[in-house]
Design a protein that fits this description.
eight-stranded mixed beta sheet, globular, 12 helices, alpha/beta
Length: 282
């Protein structure tokens, strides 16, 4: 059940190749585009969107298959497709300059757009994510990629989104917040993109999304002079300190804050500290 008090937005819809993509578009001013990961949706950014919409235009899409977007069953849920969809949306909105806020899969997707169009990027905010190759993958995620067992765990038992509401945070979620995260993923068919995201993690050169990720990684140099703010949850079991240090190595001029007691859903655990930092950065 999705609480209107927690998610007081009126999302818009755009059709991309016959499928509806949902997105928040509220406020006025310089545009801030926020990109979620897996297994979340625009709900992850609800507090930041509410915080900024009085001074900025906030745009928060649900990737295809996620949140309030359509969940087609026979669809190319690949990194390239998600980047293409973001590009289509932002082109339709005719945005000249944006600040990108990225988390989890939103990092590879957002940076994928950014390296295609560095001229449209004003600033970057990075939250527990990656946009470069790595062989680091927790076993609990790895088993969700196994044939037969993976679909049963992720789609049948809800064994990815459901555990995340406790495993991705260090502060216990309120029941209505946890329900909000899970609301769009209440059935086998509606959990299709959660599984496809897990399967789309490119760990070797034979993976279909490997070349796309390499292109994103190699293009990061185009963004080296963009102002960047890195805000990191230190108790993330997936995007560990290794990833944080990789970002700092690639962007040594970035402003960074490491929150020792926050988990993967860093905006849940440390919002009171993070929101003022983002506001100051903007």
């Amino acid at each position: 059940m999705l609480s209107k008090e927690l998610y007081p937005f009126n999302p818009k819809q755009i059709s991309i190749h016959g499928h509806s993509l949902s997105y928040i578009d509220e406020g006025e001013g310089s545009a801030v585009v926020m990109l979620h990961g897996n297994p979340t949706w625009s709900f992850y950014y609800r507090n930041l969107a509410l915080f900024l919409k009085s001074s900025h235009r906030v745009i928060v899409p649900d990737h295809m298959g996620c949140g309030l977007s359509d969940k087609p069953q026979d669809y190319p849920y690949t990194l390239k497709t998600h980047i293409d969809n973001l590009e289509f949306l932002l082109n339709e909105l005719n945005l000249e300059r944006i600040t990108l806020v990225v988390h989890d899969w939103g990092g590879a997707i957002g940076m994928g757009y950014a390296v295609r169009h560095p001229e449209h990027i004003d600033k970057l905010v990075v939250l527990n994510t990656a946009a470069f190759r790595s062989t680091h993958i927790p076993f609990r995620i790895s088993i969700c990629r196994w044939p037969v067992i993976g679909p049963l765990i992720v789609r049948g038992l809800n064994g990815f989104a459901l555990p995340a509401v406790s495993m991705a945070v260090t502060r216990k979620m309120a029941p209505d917040v946890a329900a909000g995260y899970l609301a769009p993923y209440e059935s086998w068919s509606n959990r299709i993109a959660i599984l496809r995201f897990v399967q789309d993690i490119p760990l070797s050169s034979s993976h279909p999304s490997w070349d796309t990720l390499v292109e994103v990684e190699q293009g990061l140099v185009k963004l080296k002079d963009k102002p960047m703010l890195i805000l990191w949850g230190g108790r993330d079991f997936c995007f560990t300190r290794h990833f944080y240090e990789e970002w700092l190595k690639r962007f040594p001029k970035a402003v960074s804050h490491f929150f020792d007691d926050a988990g993967h859903y860093v905006l849940e655990d440390a919002a009171d500290l993070i929101l003022p930092e983002i506001n100051k950065f903007l």
